[in-house]
């Protein structure tokens, strides 16, 4: 008894381009998903840098530093990114600086940061996010 190899049926050419068409249809969705993940990662990274910078600024403000020293420290901590507004500094009892009379009160450093999220094939998304840090005056 002789075994003959089985032959696969030959394609008649009707499905030759189906894979290419399916790939062409799904490719924009995959690219949008991929670039969306990258854009979100970039946004979140910048947001974390600004959150750290405002925390550092509030910490410096709580140690009775001048507003110009606080803003300089925030700018330094936010490097390489640029703040879209000048941070405001306020003590809960009023004023912009901790003093011996305001020990224990809250000092708040905040600003509204502008973010732009750009994805291919879509219009850019502009978002304004409030960045805020609070410490107690020392």
Describe the model:
- With 138 residues, the protein is of the alpha+beta class.
- It has one domain (29-136).
- The protein contains two helices and three strands.
- The chain has a three-stranded antiparallel beta sheet, with helices on one face.
Report the major sheet.
3 strands, antiparallel
- Average pLDDT across residues? 90
- Helix fraction bin: 25-40%
| Estimated radius of gyration | 28 Å
Q: What's the N-to-C terminus distance?
A: 97 Å
What is the succession of H and E elements?
HHEEE
Give start-end ranges of low-pLDDT stretches: none
Structural class: alpha+beta
- Spatial shape: rod-shaped
- Order of strands, main sheet, comes to 1-2-3
Oligomer: single chain
Number of strands: 3
The number of domains: 1
Number of helices: 2
Strand content: 15-25%
